[in-house]
Amino acid sequence: MILTDIHVHSEYSSDGESPLSEVLDEARGRGISYLGIAEHFDYDYNALGLRINGAPAFTDAESYFAEGRRLQRGSGNVKLLLGCEMGYSPSPEVARQYEEVINKYSPDFVVNSVHTCGNHDCWFQDYFAGKDKFTAYKEYLLRVKESLSAPYSYDIVGHIGYVSRNAPYPDPKLRYADFKELYDEIFKKIIELNKILEVNSSVRTAGCAHLPDGDALARYFELGGRKVSFSSDAHNKRNLCRGREEAVRTLRQTGFTYLTVPCRGEEIIVPLD
Predict the structure, then answer these.
(1) What is the model's pTM?
(2) Rounded distance between C-alpha atoms, residue 158 and residue 199, angstroms
(3) 121, 158, 178, 204: most buried by Cβ count inside 10 Å?
C-alpha cells in the first residue's frame, strides 16, 4: 500500500498547529510515501482585510520554503512535496501576488481553492446571513467555476463543497442532484484543463464523508474524469490521512484505480490501494 496525503498544513499556516518537522516525522512513522504540504497563501483574505485568529491568512514564504527545502533533503522514505494553497480571488492584484510566489519559490504543486465569496469566507456565518441554502451554495459553486480560469499555474482543484463544512442549515449536504448543470460545467472544465480533482476528507458538519461527495464523484468519473488526489487537509500531525479509508472505498466503488500526485509539472500515478 502506498499512502499519499496531498494538502496538509503545519504551523506555517496561521490556523495550523504542528511544526513542519513534526508533521514530517509523523508521516515517516505512519509509512506515508507522499506528503504534500500546502500552506495557506490566501491573498484573497488580504484583499478583503480578513484575518484568521487575528493573523494574516498567508504564509511567511521565505521561512517556509527555506525550512521545507532543508527537510526535503533528509526526508528519508517520505517524498516531501512543498506546495501552496492559493485562495482564489477575481482581483488581478491577488493573481499577480500568486504569480510572484510561484515564480520566486517554484512550489512543487499548487492547490487552487475557493474560500471567499463576495466579502466573506464561506466558513463563517456572515456569509450565510439572509441566504437560503440554494442561494448560498449556488454562489459558491459559481465562484468555483470562475476559479478554474485563474491566470496563474495550479495543479489541484481543492475541496469542492467547502461551503457546506460549517453551514447553518438543518441539512447541510451539498448534492450533485441540486446543481447538476453547474457541477457538470465545473467537472468538464477540470477535465478540459487537465487538472486534478481533490477528494478532501475534512468535512466537519457537511453531512458526508468527503468533499466532493460520492454522487458528484460518480458524475465526474462518468464525464471522463480520472485524475483525483486524496487530502486529509490536516492542520495538525494527528490528523494525517484521517478519513482516507472511506474516501478510497468510495473511489474504488466508483471505478477509480489510481491517485495522481503532482510534482513540478509531472504527475506520479499511485495505485489505489
Answers:
(1) 0.96
(2) 8
(3) 158
